[in-house]
Amino acid sequence: MLHHGGQRARGQRHGAGAGGERADRDAGPTAPDRPRLDPRRARRPLRHQPQEVITIEHGEGNPSIATLLRISDALGVGLPVLVDVERPPALTVTAAGQAPVLWRGPRGGQARLVAGTEPPDVVELWDWTLQPGESHTSEPHSAGTRELVLVLEGAVDLRVGERTDRLQTGDSAAFAGDVAHGYATPDAAAPARFALSVFQPHVPGSRS
């Protein structure tokens, strides 16, 4: 799958941000012995041309998180499998600052996928930072997806469907990830940092 390393750029879950932000370009292309993305293996029709998938795989594209999510869902693999390197199954330790940055906001915010598991039940752990006035909107994820958020610093406006709640430092929330949702900092607030866990059940694919 896509290879993370500090080589050429490539770009992952939570849709394009409100300002059209793109997934970050700080990880390398597929290693020579890495299995390749094969659009013919998609369990759902890909809304992307095969050449676009190949371009992304080679680290030459700059896809949004939403694009990578649609590809991972169509191929039946979790996002951690799509963007991460091969790792031993028993224990994975990611040193501080080494997790891939998969989103950057227009004012310096960023999201790192710090840990994740493989199918069939995919769990992702994210470290999000939003600068004042930044926001990020997510498309609905696959049915049954659930998310947990814990605000570590500042304040976050959490929108789930038509409801918006302001979470302060230390506040947490559980919500459905299979409806439209998003995160934002109040315009006059200090930067916000929050941990986000995403659970996506019954993903049929596996790393091949």
* Strand tally: 10
Mean pLDDT: 74
Corresponding CATH superfamily of one domain? Jelly Rolls
Strand content: 25-35%
Radius of gyration: 16 Å
Explain the overall architecture.
This protein has 208 residues and is of the alpha+beta class. It has a domain at 101-200: Jelly Rolls, CATH 2.60.120. 12% of the residues lie in helices and 29% in strands. It is built from three helices and ten strands, in the order H-H-H-E-E-E-E-E-E-E-E-E-E. It has helices at residues 50-57, 65-75, 79-83; strands at residues 101-104, 110-116, 122-130, 135-138, 146-153, 156-160, 163-167, 172-176, 181-184, 192-200. The strands form two sheets. It has a six-stranded antiparallel sheet. The longest helix is centred in the middle third of the chain and has 11 residues, at 65-75. It is globular. The chain starts with 49 loop residues before the first helix and ends in an 8-residue tail after the last strand. The relative contact order is 0.19.
